[in-house]
Design goal:
By secondary structure, the protein is an all-alpha fold. The chain has 4 helices and no strands.
Length: 106
């Protein structure tokens, strides 16, 4: 018996998808609003190249989520950049195979 292909190519794809669904379910935005914003992002990202539906798809998904969070004054681009930088430093300083731990201020 063959195993089905995974639904997501990378763990972060599943995580950003699940986070978006959760935020929708908590009432942060309507799914139709999300679909419209995501469609606009895909169109913008697809101007320079043909999208392959994998990494580039979820990069566009993440960009849309960041935009939605900013538009709703939940996380500004500056706040998002700080968290991205903290995660980058965390994974770059984590030995291979060890869990990545984000150190929080305070």
């Amino acid at each position: 018996m063959t195993r089905p292909d995974p639904a997501f190519e990378a763990p972060w794809h599943a995580q950003v998808f699940a986070l978006t669904v959760h935020l929708n379910e908590t009432g942060l935005f309507d799914w139709s609003d999300w679909a419209s914003a995501f469609g606009a992002t895909l169109k913008q990202h697809g101007l320079a190249k043909e999208l392959n539906g994998g990494e580039d798809y979820f990069t566009a998904w993440l960009a849309t989520l960041e935009q939605v969070l900013s538009e709703r004054d939940i996380a500004s681009p500056a706040q998002t950049a700080v968290i991205k930088d903290a995660w980058e430093q965390a994974y770059l300083s984590t030995p291979h195979g060890a869990p990545v731990v984000l150190k929080t201020a305070g």
